[in-house]
């Protein structure tokens, strides 16, 4: 298993998922991280995202998005929220029923648990940035397909590029697969740290997984203690040094 993780980490460290200077689109229609992208009109779409100089501009573009079938079954696009210059960014899987209804990420039961974990680690929700891999609710809260993830990933990369967090946390397998490696498993990558694009990147269990299996709470709390320590080191966030 250790060998597998090393292989995943090796691939991951070589790649950048932020917009690169002079590169409007990735080569050969393949996005950073190995994700296939939709070739038709992709260049224009990427340029449109790259032209957004703020999260508000990007959100306005996303509001009219129809790039994947999820939009048809969702009430609205749940863009994300928090400090636009947060030192800590958290990425989950996708909106659930409450999020779809309210238009905000992590506001259902899993969101309430995340708030409690963040508070215990010394973070105020408003000082971090929270979003998801896909912004429209998958029907029945199913896991988004690879095609749906690939369609929505350019928005996520653009958000990361605008917020430029110092610490990036994947909550659950879907986010780890989106941002660490397409084959990443949460049990392999959680609690490990990588450096990418000037960010410290890690993964831990999704709060919904903690609700389903309370035995994961202890390792998740250990992960969040490490996240708090990284943030203290990087930006002075978390615990008694929160600013
Ligand atoms: S999930 Fe993302 S890519 Fe799909 S329609 Fe919604 S905003 Fe667009």
Structure explained in plain terms:
By secondary structure, the protein is α/β, with parallel strands linked by helices. It is 44% helix and 10% strand. Strands 1-3-2-4-6-5 form a six-stranded mixed β-sheet, with helices on both faces. The relative contact order is 0.17. Residues 1-14 and 19-38 have low confidence and may be disordered. Iron/sulfur cluster is lined by residues 62, 65-68, 70-71, 77, 134-136, 148, 151-152. Residues 62, 65-68, 70-71, 77, 134-136, 148, 151-152 line the site of iron/sulfur cluster.
The CATH superfamily appears as: Uracil-DNA glycosylase-like domain
User: Taking strands numbered 1, 2, ... along the chain, how are they ordered across the largest sheet?
Assistant: 1-3-2-4-6-5
Write out the distinct hetero groups bound to the structure.
iron/sulfur cluster
Report helical residue fraction. Answer: 40-55%
Termini separation comes to 39 Å
Characterize the overall form: globular
The CATH top-level class label: Alpha Beta
Mean pLDDT value: 85
CATH architectural designation: 3-Layer(aba) Sandwich
Strand-and-helix sequence, N→C?
A: HHHHEEHHEHEHHEEHH
Q: Give the biggest sheet.
A: 6 strands, mixed
Strand content: 5-15%
Structural class, from helix and strand content? alpha/beta
Low-confidence parts lasting 5 or more residues at pLDDT below 50? 1-14, 19-38
Task: Give the strand tally.
Answer: 6
CATH topology: Uracil-DNA Glycosylase, subunit E
Helix count equals 11
What does the radius of gyration come to?
Answer: 17 Å
Number of domains: 1
């Amino acid at each position: 298993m250790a060998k597998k993780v090393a292989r995943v980490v090796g691939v991951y460290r070589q790649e950048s998922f932020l917009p690169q200077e002079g590169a409007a689109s990735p080569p050969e229609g393949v996005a950073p991280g190995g994700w296939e992208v939709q070739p038709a009109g992709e260049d224009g779409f990427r340029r449109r995202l790259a032209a957004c100089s703020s999260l508000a501009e990007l959100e306005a573009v996303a509001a009219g998005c129809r790039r994947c079938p999820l939009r048809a079954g969702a009430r609205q696009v749940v863009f994300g929220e928090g400090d636009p210059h947060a030192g800590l960014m958290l990425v989950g899987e996708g909106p659930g029923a409450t999020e779809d209804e309210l238009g905000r990420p992590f506001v259902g039961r899993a969101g309430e648990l995340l708030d409690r974990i963040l508070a215990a680690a010394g973070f105020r929700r408003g000082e971090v940035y929270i979003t998801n891999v896909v912004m429209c609710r998958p029907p029945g809260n199913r896991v988004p397909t690879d095609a749906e993830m690939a369609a929505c990933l350019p928005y996520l990369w653009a958000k990361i590029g605008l917020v430029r967090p110092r610490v990036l946390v994947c909550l659950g397998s879907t986010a780890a697969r989106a941002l660490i490696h397409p084959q990443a498993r949460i049990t392999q990558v959680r609690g490990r740290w990588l450096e990418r694009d000037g960010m410290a990147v890690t993964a831990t269990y999704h709060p919904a997984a903690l609700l389903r299996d309370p035995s994961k709470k202890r390792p998740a709390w250990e992960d969040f203690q490490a996240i708090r320590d990284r943030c203290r080191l990087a930006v002075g966030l978390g615990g008694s040094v929160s600013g």
